[in-house]
Amino acid sequence: MKNFSKNHPILHIIFKNTFTLFNFVNLVLALMVAFVGSFKNMLFIFVAIANTLISIINEVRAYKIVKKMRLISEQKPTILRNGKSIQVAPEEIEKGDLVILSLGDQILYDSIMEEGTLEVNESFITGEQDNVEKHPGDELVSGSFVVAGTAKAKVIHVGDENSITKLEKEAHHLKTADSKLFTLMNKIVKYISYALIPVGALLLWSRFRTESDATTAVTSTVAGLINMIPEGLILLTSSVLALATIRLSKKKVLVQDLYSIETLARVDTICLDKTGTLTTGNMKVKDFILPDGTTFDKIPSAMSPAQKSFLTALNAILASQMSENATSTALKKALAGSGKFAEIKGITEVIPFSSDRKHSGIRTRDAEYLMGAIDFITSNKAIIKKVKSYAGDYRVISVVKNKEFLGCVRLEDEIRKNAPQIIKYFYDNDIEPKVISGDELETVKTIAETVGIRDLRGIDLSTEKNLNFSKLVQEYSIFTRVKPEQKKKLIEAFRKNQRTVAMTGDGVNDILAMKEADCSIAIGEGSDAARRSAKLVLLDSDFDRVPSIIDEGRQSINNLERSTALFLAKTVYATILAVIFVLAPLSYPFSPIEMSLLSFACIGFPGLVLALEKNTARIKDKFTYNIKHYSVPTGITVAVSMLILSIIATNNNFSRAKLTTLSAIIVFAIDFILIYKVSKPLNLFRAALLILIIGIFLGALFIPFIRDFFEFTLAF
Prior knowledge:
Helices cover 53% and strands 17% of the residues. The protein is an alpha+beta fold. The protein has an eight-stranded mixed sheet with strand order 8-22-21-20-9-17-19-18, with helices on both faces. Strands 1, 2, 3, 4, 5, 6 and 7 form a seven-stranded antiparallel sheet that branches. The longest helix is centred in the C-terminal third of the chain and has 39 residues, at 545-583.
């Protein structure tokens, strides 16, 4: 089925919405009504068809928009085919193609290394967190991603032979949607499904014993079973989430997991990667610093020996690296146009940048040149202390030759203009921001303070041993010098402390943490692997979109929680009545046609309208509350009222029309009180909704031809 949904997505949407248990039940019940010739009472089947069509249209529309956005945002792999270098869509790659891989790329197909050296993370496949070095002849497994190096690899498996495809079929690596809404819907469907067949059979048996004719027996049985099905709730849930996906697409937000909208709405902790989130990701060189403390902000035309040694090494390391990032781009720009540097000859090995190592470099026969964070490229404590004193508001990149300090560069991060407003939004909406970064503690704290982070308690994880992550997340809000595996452990610790966590990121160093988070948000300009791993992608890389995503999710879930009470109240009283009328020799008070009216006027219509109203309050998980305080009391009230009415009707020989009319009036009155309660506090919009609902029911009761259609009577 998963393979079918992947290859024929629109057909899958049509199939899953059409061939449902509830649609099958509706069809069987409609055939029962048709069999006894009461065609008017088949109105409910047209409502079911309309529900199905609306759900299909909304989901197909959302799918097409998401597909279009994915095509726009998707990076096309570069391959060598027939001696030419071309970019193709992932699905166009064929067995035998040579794929060029570099830092941040997701490995889409099983391949064999042909040239180069890579470090890959295979944790999603093997469960092992350590990076694995790959050389020519080694196999690359689809589903892993590149954390360092560049290479050419020959594709050996595509389609169903691909490792990741096999894993998807077995679903071993997939994380189940952590959706309370999804879980609730499944439970409702499961329990009602268990009850429908035995209750239906018993109810039909009891109606034939009680009612005087077959038509009344069948229609009353059908009315009882239809009421038990909360099909409108399932429609409403899928439609609301699909519409939210469509609205977010207009804000350049790609929703890759429908239920992530709900999850983000519940978030109370958001972990922010500094680069690309609080900052734009654009960097520029502030100045260069030599070992004696001399600083210069431009490359001099005539260089001193110290300058020449430092800048030549820096330039050689940059030139050796095949992958680009914001830091290397800024450094190359600062060195450009300064003339030729002396060449470092005899390079025997290139050390690609890695988030774990936090450095890159080159080796010759007699020297090793490293560039990166000072405490990761030398153990000289005096040098480390001196270089760290230069940090302040800047990122510091150092260069050493055989562990000897040659100099460092200070780079400025560009802070996002609206970052302070976004951070304020988080605090105002009960979401606690945490900062996780690979940079220096003081640098990150300065930026965090600038954007408005209130809790500046920070820790440099590179200086700590035997880390207790559960304790750390309770004591600190800023975490620096964090390795990818440590990011993941921080997210795990937050979740173990009963936090609902969102994680933002743009690079391969964020992927493990993003996968672990309840909801992950990738920056569109980030790595291919990061975007594929995220549940939400900011296509224009504008972090300002996050508040609107949270608001969209809160609106959807808050309103669905409120509307749930309307749908479940009907299920509660229908279930109770079904049991009562199996045992009691009384006339069942409903017929299918009047229940179609009540379902529309008191449940479907107000539920849909209320679900689309703006509501961005903090999610309070009111499903259980609504069931206890609204659905169950209302359901019991209706059930008791109908039992009393049926006893009175039986003892006083009420006509069928009189019984169903009185039952409709009573149920409408009770349901209206429920709608009023869930609509409080009233505003102009909700008041207008209540007036319209009254108008719909009174029209059905007092307009003659409508009254006749619904078989109501005013002859009391």
